[in-house]
Amino acid sequence: MKQLSNRTVVFYVLAAVCIVLLVLSSSGRLAPVEGVFTTVARPFLVAFNGLGRQINNVFTTARDLATLRSRNQQLQAQADTLIIDNLRLKEVGSENERLRELLRFRQLNPTYDFRGGQVIARVISGGTSNYLATIAIDLGAEHGIEPGMPVVTERGLVGRIYKVGPSTSTVLLITDPSSGVQALVKRNRAVGVVTGQAGAQPVMDFVPQDADISVGDEIITSGLGGNFPKNLVIGQVVSVHQRDYEMFQQATIRPTVNFDRLEFVLVITNFQPLPGQPAEPESVG
Q1: 206 lies in a domain?
Q2: Is 255 in the same domain as 134?
Q3: pLDDT of 211-234, one tens digit each?
């Protein structure tokens, strides 16, 4: 009972103090005291206020960084997609351009029937007795392909069919040593035979000593021998080798066809080589 009375007394005392303070504050008598407390507390209030702002800035920055990181990932994914789409469009455009060039070549050579095929393999093999430079295409007997048919691109002569399967064929390139093409200099019709060289550019052999052949001359098929049609572009002379004591002179030829980048070719299907032309290459020692 005594404890309860003490609490009551404390309550009334505190209530009385509060009332007094309110009266004094409303009358302005506590202004000096309030000023002192304000002056003392101001540094602490400023410090706590600044700390609160810094904490808020930290949380805001973290939230913004998370948002920016998520947005950056989205933009990077979009950029990757656009790069892939752009590369795909460039490849399609490049392929369309090559096909248009082949179509233009067909239109400029209406006397020939062509069958277009895609290069599906490239084989270069060497051995002690034979060296072969060939490509495989996705055309075969079921497409009307036969051994000996000439193979070309819009840039010039590629080679000839020498092995035929049901749906694929092998093309012997003019860069193969066993390949021989009767040729002539377009400028003055000087004749010779273009043969491949293992690991080197083809050469035009058996050119008469008195024939005028120079660097830059264009070499085309002559049609002689019956193994290739006439006037197909082979390449360009890059050097001439002549010795007065030899019966013939020789020229090195740079083919107009880039054999390392062949993708599409045309097979001339209405040209039949003369009987006796070899279907497969002979071994080269």
Answers
A1: yes
A2: yes
A3: 999 999 999 999 888 889 999 999
